[in-house]
Amino acid sequence: MEEKIWKKSTERGILGVERATLTHRQDHLREVIVTALESKPIWTKPIDFGMSESPGTVSTHPYGNGQIVVRFFEDGNWARKIFRNVESVRKRKACFDEEHIAFVQRVGSSKAALVTLALMDENNRMLPTLETYFKDGKKTSPSLQTVAMNAIKKLAEFHAGGFSHGHPSCENVLVENPGTIRLIDPKDITPIYRLKAKSAEEYREKDRDTLAEQILMLMENKLSDREHDELSKKLDEEYARHYKRCKEKDRERT
Prior knowledge:
- 40% of the residues lie in helices and 22% in strands.
- It is of the alpha+beta class.
- A hairpin with an 8-residue loop joins strand 3 (43-47) and strand 4.
- The protein has helices at residues 30-38, 76-91, 130-134, 141-160, 197-218, 225-253, and strands spanning 6-11, 20-25, 43-47, 56-63, 66-73, 100-106, 112-117, 173-177, 180-183.
- It is built from six helices and nine strands, in the order E-E-H-E-E-E-H-E-E-H-H-E-E-H-H.
- The longest helix has 29 residues, at 225-253.
- The chain starts with 5 loop residues before the first strand and ends with a helix.
- It has two domains: 6-117, Phosphorylase Kinase, domain 1 (2-Layer Sandwich); 130-253.
């Protein structure tokens, strides 16, 4: 980790933990982070993060004019791995929207937590997930298809930056507006830029197919069979076009 960005301290009482090591970004004040972590959660729910071997909880806490999201892992190795991988993404300036501001490691235990800034809309509300957005009965089929295309393009842009996501579910794609999609909560980021072309393509295809399948499931009752098949084809084609376009832009910059 870059010392100029990250700083460590030992804290007591945060997240109900007697003693913990807090590694935080220096552009976020330690005192403000600690106060937020000691505050009563706005909401808390159990979650398995898509990894049965590492169940935990996720909660949100007030943080200045916004909120932070705290993902607490029973197996801190997963938290540490995601933390480091997201740092790798940040350093390569790949397309990823979630900002980690702190990592909490319980002293004498494997338990750990990731602390990220919650993505909010202009009314200071958390952005809806793709699933929540699609289940809004007021949204029309054409507008949902526009969002679906932009979601698959967002994933292609992330892949073009050199990484696979590992868990691009509709819960991990947020909708700021139909034209602005946010990608968050990586399960197992893989630096595919280090892999041979065939292996990298397999990771990309797995991500793409996972997200496309979930989008098509959400659209199942909104489309005819023919429209459903056409959307499936369009998602694949739009992903391929946008991935190629992003890679070409990268080559032009270098």
